[in-house]
Amino acid sequence: MTDERYSISQVARCFGVPVSTLRYYDDLGLLPAAERRGNVRYYGHAELCWLALIRCLHHRGLVSLADTAVLVGEDPAADRPSGREVLTSSIETIKGRIADLRNAQRLLEHLLTCPRADPVRECPYLRAELVQAVDHALGRTGVGDAP
Fold it and tell me: Which residues does UniProt assign to the signal peptide (predicted)?
């Protein structure tokens, strides 16, 4: 490891985030306190590793920013879930997203192979999916229920 320090603008550029995001993370206590020289914040390798962790957890969509704070925070609060609870909940959320994406993939693959001239407008399978989505949105329990 190196003792080299990087200015907040260098870090922002390297990580592809606005400087304001780094300041926000500092304010939330997500990043360890940055060294300051005048008004400029400087980060070392350890802080950059924390930033990489935050980006891994939050920016990849694995957990919310609030949950990221729970996972990387130093002081667990009594009114917040534990890190393991956050991880368990996040896994369940991801499983749901994966199921949704698999369903979307199946639908798109079906439309790609549908023999109808205009599958988006004419496919009976898609039409049934849309009717089911509308019924669900309207709180109907079965197809053909009266409004």
Answer: none
